[in-house]
Amino acid sequence: MIKVKLLERGSVIELEAKELKVVELLEKFGLSPSEHIVLRNGEVVTEEDTLHDGDEVVIFTVKSGG
Hints:
The protein is mainly beta and 66 residues long. The protein has one helix spanning 22-28; strands at 2-6, 11-15, 19-21, 36-40, 43-45, 50-52, 56-61.
């Protein structure tokens, strides 16, 4: 099971998956890789990295301003 925290939506979701690519995770939630940063167990991962059973994932929305 992969535990996912979506900070923008304030929710925690547990996915019944043994493995999942980060890009697939973002697609599952309708999120753009260019607008989000994904942490796996506290470390930044790329969209090509694979998430595994037991990982804790946090998704941040990238915002900029001036």
